Amino acid sequence: MNESVGFIVGVVLTLLIYSYLIGDNPLYRIAVHMLVGVSAGYAAVVVIQRVLMPVIADAQADPQLSAINWLIPLIFFLLLFLRRLPKLGWISNLTLALLVGVGTAVALVGALTGTLIPQAVNFTAPTANFGIIIALLTICTLVAFQFTPILQRNAAAGGTWEKPRWQRLLTQAGQLVLTITFGALFATLLSTSLVLLADRINFYLTQFLQLLS
Amino acid sequence: MCPNCSTANTRDRIFCDNCGSRLVPDEKPKPDEPEVQEPATGSGAFTLPTRKPGETGELDPSKLPDWLSRQMSEKAQQAEEDDEDIPNIEEFQSDKRQTDDLPDWLIHDSDPEPIINAPTTISTEFFLDLVDKADDLPDLDELMLDQDDDLMQGAKDANLPDWLSEANNIPDNTRPPAANQSLPEPDEIFSDIGDDSLFAGLDSEFPAEEDDEDEPDWLSEEVASDAQDDGGMTEWLSDLEETTAESLTHDVNEVDEGTGLTEWLADLDSGELSTEAAEPEIDLFNMDGLEETAVADEDADDWLTDLSADETETAVPAEPPTIYTESFPEPDEGDSENWWGDFTDDEDEEIAPTAESTESAVLDTIPESDEDEDSWWDDFADENEEITIPSTADTGSVLDEIPESDEDDGWWDDLAETVEPESPSAVDHDEDAEDTEDTAVPEWETVTDEQFDTLFAGTPAEETDLPDWLSAASEESGSLVGDQADEPSAESLRNTQHLIQNAETDWLADLEGVASETPELSGVFLGLDDEDDSFIDNLAAPFIEDESESEPDWFSDLPSVDTGQLLREAEADLENLPTPSEEPALELHQPEEEAISEPFLEDDNWDVADEDFFAMEEGDNLPEWINQLGDPSSITDSSPPPLSSDEELPDWIASMRPEDNAVPSEMGGSLSGVEPDFSDSLEGLPFDLAGGDLPDWLTPGEGSGDIAQVASELGGAAIDQNPEIPDWLKADNDEGEPFTGGEGDDNWVSMLDNLPGVIPPAAALAKADIPAWVEELKPAELDDDKTGKRRLPEGPEEKEGPLAGLRGVVAVETATIQPHTIEPVRQFLVTPEQKEQVALLQQILHEETGSGTVIAGKADAHVSAALRIVLSILLIGAVVLGLRTVSLAKASFSEVPAPVAAVNTAVTNAANMPVLVAFDYPPAMSGELSPQAETLLQQLAAQNSAVVIVSQYPSATGIIADALGSEYEADNLGYLPGNAIGLRQLSDCLTGQSACNTLVGKSVPDDTRQKLKNVGLIVVLTGNKESLTNWIEQVGTKSDVAISAGVTTALAPSASPYYATSQLSGYLGGLLDTAVYQDLIDDKTQNVSQLLNAQLLGQILVATILLVGLIIYGISGSLSKRGKSKRS
Predict the structure, then answer these.
(1) Among chain B residues, CA nearest to A35
(2) Hey, are the CB atoms on A103 and B980 less than 8 Å from each other?
(3) pLDDT over 80 at B356, yes or no
């Protein structure tokens, strides 16, 4: 029964989401809102259950230790609630500053040590030509983002601004690389979407067939 | 700048802020200037500034001294403020009188013709005409209707004599006599004075005037004189002249109280009167007048009312007034008594009523006037030119005495103004009617009983209250005051009227007329009832004097008097007046063109006049000016005596004595010797205190008023002991030195020496620093070199031109010939770069405009929606078709991708080792990742690897549960918040660098912590690139644990570089790699082929739709271009 109700609700909500195919409509909005709400609620429950409740359990088990461990985090936590108070909202910036600062620092360090440096150092092309091609395509991609002409032609005489030919070629090569990349990404995304669609349809078909059977 | 201390003061300062000295010259006259006049010396002590011979016209007000003009205005204002009951002086002035003050019957609005036409000559017809007009006059009751009821009631209730009672019908009884009527002879008049039937005869006299037979002779003569213009006197005057020499020698002390006439009156008839004796009677007469005035009261009012009415009807010129009215200083407060006492004592001895002496006395007494009561000066200013007849001094003296009983000085003004137009010398025929009409207005009639009482209230009834002069007079006259107090006024009036009746003279009527216009004179006339014969003497004096010479008809001279003609005449006659006895009568009748009054003194002679005044004070027993009155010849010869002693001077005059050290005034004219005004020192003091009583020690007393003298008299010890002296004055005498205020006072000198010196304003200014650039501009020739010599300017010396001889002259040519190039101001210079930028921006703007997005219409929207529905249906159909019917995927994959193989390797390597599996994907991604998770978990479970599950997505917990199911046991760490931070901390547990008792605040079980520490592989299942990178960057960089990833198809390109760099130990990219991986490990439990077929079928469908769409778009585009080209 529960699976049947769940199946019906699931089917309805799925159809509501798919109603976006005919354009933006209230059914679609309802389904989206329900999805977001349920997701947020579910996340809140998970946080409470998985984050706060263990902390409380630790505090009850060892109050002194918990007090020491959670005093400062608790203060920062409470400071976030002051954001609703106009006159005291600035205090909550301390917590946000701490979070953003630490997060940025960690991400920056991780990006350097985990992406840029390894990608630059450890990149090894299969062949030399392939490496040059990759390098050229990378340059072409960067030049594609240069929207102003590097050289001027007949500008003093009142002529139009035109990119030099080599710049135009590099820009076009870069734009081509970007187009292929975005096309590949779109194709992979479409593939993922089709898989998800197929999975949902398969699920409903399976469930529906099971109900029928 | 203060002239005294040189202190700078602002412009608006009147007094110096430092020393208090006056900064602005005081242009206003000093009110107390008369007090500081220097003692006058010389014979002309009372020769007031008059006019030079030949000057005509009235005094120019602008020529008056400032102090005099100022006093005139101030005293007039003071009189208005002090006394509201007493009429203002302006009301008595002929030129300012208004008909508003006149009764209706006098105004005659209905009759355009005035009641009394001013005749050019007084004739009998004129009198008759006046009498006829007088019939229209209202009754006395009507006349007095507007007056005070008490006055009227008192007049009616008074014990009037019969003739007074009948006087109400005067218009019927006082018709002027006919021209041929004969006036009674003077001898008859005076002989009848002592008769008790005087008043009775007076009653019968008026009707008798209607009879031609009873007409006075003087009228007859006047008719003749009018015709002949000879100015002859009446008979009685002629007779009176004959008897003057003897009759006026009468002793005034002899009073026949039984008959009511004095002896001299009795003797008058016998020709014992003399001019010499007549004049001393003036004061007695005055006293009598005053005394009688005090007693007369209400009877006098009625009597005078009748007289005034008569006078108004007959328009007989009044008795000429005298300038003595103004000549005497106005009595003021208590000092006036002594003054008058002295004066009357002196005056009794001899009075020379010469014109010159009289007028000089008038002017000389000006400075003596009290500063607070000088309104009489206003009158004097007007009368000085007009009233110069010495013969009128008698009446004037009488008038002067009257105000002594009244403290109000405004009374004096009124009186003087009232008398003035009535003077025969001041009344012009042309103005006679007007003046009569005005002056006859009973201004004095308006005086109520209270006013009269007040007017004469000051007249002491007891000897103890009498002033000195009255006391002296009473002694001489035999206790006159007491007699008057005892005698009824009616009897006095009867005596007076009897005298008039017997005299049968018009001059008596004239006197009445004078009295009618001057209430003060009414009191004088009331004095007739007294036995004192001085009144008659006074009355007779002018006529006697006039008669003594050529017996001119002074009536005919009336027109010329007012114009000041008599002034000249009097002056001319002064030379012919050696003695009072020989004093000739003035030639009153002068041609109009010759009647030019001349001043006696120039303006410059004011100083002399002032000196004369003080010289008068030096007289032993009689002021000098009075001596001059008696001896006119001494005016120019006698030198002014020294200042009289204090015993001789009244206190108030003594108080005006200038100080010995007084600084002479810088003012010219008569005030050249006047001390500077000290009124400034009184500024700030209350007005009341300014004239307040001074303490005794400050009061001059018998002293001269000099402070130094007072100080010397008091001495230091006296000052210290005197409690009234303030301490600040005693402070200077601490050493026992007497305060002298002199030059030898060391204390003062020392104090003055100790005073700070005056700092020049320029010295107090701070010197400014001259800037260097200014110094550079300093001419070289002004600079001194080291040797102290002036440097000469450098450069060539000019040889020519106006600058020849100068050095260092700048050549003009060099400054002018130099060509100048003016560079244009390039305010809006546009560089080529700026032009290029402008062109670029314009180009971009043009291009963007051309490439604007075309918004599809509603039809296109509907088509698009339909297309989307069609596509969705196609996709759903394709997926269902791929799931259920079509199998496009291969059954087995021959080639395994390297990343897939690397995953298998990594998992294989992690056998028997804990494996951390991160479920970092939401439920929406479960369709693609969940098969990977189940495949990997099954493999890990197959190789006995403990699994520790963690997730960065809260929603992933459900997925984990579904993935694990009941088949797999795993340590679920659950949700790991903090993203990169959380992973960073987790990496610490993986490396074993920390205790890792807690992970993100959550305690980590020991076995779990141990598993984490021994993790051999990290499998990250995610569909989010960030999650993948975070794992690689935060965990993979800190630990050597291999990370394998199971990602979606979309995320596979992102994981490929990390795999290329060995940061990932393989990855499963999408459903296809999962299918390959299942095939690789030979996992048949997970059927991903259906999903893969559905995906492939869906991809084919999408690719087909894209191609179809491109074709349709291409065809439609080409068609549209062709259509446009065709239309174009």
Answers:
(1) B924
(2) yes
(3) no
Interface residue B979 vs chain A (CB under 8 A): yes
Interface size, chain A vs chain B, as Cβ–Cβ contacts under 8 Å = 196
DSSP state of B555: T
d(CA B604, CA A55): 124
As for the ipTM of the complex, it is 0.86
Polymer length of chain A: 213
Q: CA of A86, closest CA in chain B: separation in Å?
A: 27
A194·B1102 Cβ contact <8 A: yes
Please report residues of A whose CB lies closer than 8 A to that of B975. Answer: 46-47, 50-51
Question: Is the pLDDT reported for residue B935 higher than 80?
Answer: yes
Residues of chain B in contact with residue A39, where contact means CB-CB under 8 angstroms, are 922, 955
Sign of CA dihedral B178, B180, B181, B186: positive
Beta-carbon contacts of B164 under 8 Å, excluding residues fewer than 6 positions away, are B199, B299, B302, B303, B306, B493, B497
B723: alpha, beta or left? (left if phi > 0; alpha if psi -120 to 50)? alpha
| Token digits of residue B932 | 């990977």
Among A148, A188, A205, beta carbon nearest to B1053: A188
pLDDT in tens, A8-32: 888 888 888 888 877 788 999 999 9
Q: Which residues are within 8 A (CB) of B119 and not within 5 positions of it... i.e. 6 or more apart?
A: B126, B429, B432, B433
Q: Which of A123, A188, A194 sits opposite B1098 (nearest CB)?
A: A194
Least confident window among B279-288, B598-607, B617-626, B1058-1067: B279-288
Nearest to A108 by CA among B1056, B987, B980: B980
Q: Whole-model pTM above 0.80?
A: no
Task: Region of B703 please: left (phi>0), alpha (psi -120 to 50) or beta.
Answer: beta
Q: How far is CA B681 from CA B659, B685, B689, B700, B798, in A?
A: 16, 9, 13, 18, 68
Query: Tokens at residue A91, please?
Result: 């205090």
Contact yes or no for B836 and A161 at CB 8 A: yes
| Residue that wins the pLDDT comparison between B289 and B953 | B953
- Alpha carbon distance B473, B459 (integer Å): 13
Q: Which residue of B has its CA nearest to A62?
A: B1003
| pLDDT at residue B991, as a whole number | 78
Residue A28 Cα, gap to closest chain B Cα (Å) = 14
Q: 3-state class of B908 per DSSP?
A: helix
Q: Would you tell me the crossing angle of helices B449-457 and B519-526 to the nearest 10 degrees?
A: 70
Q: Do A194 and B1061 touch (CB under 8 A)?
A: no
The beta strands (E) that lie in B522-586 are given as none
Query: Are B954 and A46 inside 8 Å of each other by CB?
Result: yes
What's chain A's Rg over C-alpha atoms?
28
B676: phi then psi, degrees, rounded to nearest 5: -55, 150
